[in-house]
Amino acid sequence: MADTVIVEPGQLEGEPFAAEQQAFERPRARLSRKYTGEFVAMYGGKVADHGPDDEDGARRMFERWGDVPFYIAKVEDTPTEHELPSPETLP
């Protein structure tokens, strides 16, 4: 999970994952003051884990909560976006 997948808020409306993503997006200024440069895991609408590595954070989340929908993203002033090629365009 080295790269963060960007899903636009509301794209998964009605999905538990969307609720966690929206919980990350709403207090971005507060998160920025406390967690800038760290990966934050949202679960139950709250920060459930944070740290410098998203893979370690995901491992801790699975150990602590099991297979539940949670959202991990890096807290940045300007979110990093990754463009991935469509499978149809690959050779």
Structure at a glance:
By secondary structure, the chain is of the alpha+beta class. It has helices spanning 16-25, 28-35, 54-65; strands at residues 39-43, 46-51, 71-74.
Defining key terms:
single chain, 91 residues, alpha+beta, 3-stranded antiparallel β-sheet, 3 helices, 3 strands, 16% strand, globular, disordered N terminus
Largest sheet: 3 strands, antiparallel
**Helix count, per DSSP?**
3
Strand order of the largest sheet: 2-1-3
Portion of residues in beta strands equals 15-25%
Helical fraction = 25-40%
Order of helices and strands: HHEEHE
**Structural class by helix and strand composition:** alpha+beta
Number of strands: 3
Overall pLDDT confidence:
79
> Which residues sit in consecutive blocks of at least 5 with pLDDT less than 50?
1-13
Q: What would you call the shape?
A: globular
What does the model show?
Helices cover 33% and strands 16% of the residues. The chain has 91 residues and is an alpha+beta fold. The protein has a domain at 16-75. A three-stranded antiparallel beta sheet has the order 2-1-3. A hairpin with a 2-residue loop joins strand 1 (39-43) and strand 2 (46-51). The longest helix has 12 residues, at 54-65. It is globular, with a radius of gyration of 14 Å.
List the helices and strands and how they pair.
Layout: H1 16-25, H2 28-35, E1 39-43, E2 46-51, H3 54-65, E3 71-74
Antiparallel strand pairs: 1-2, 1-3
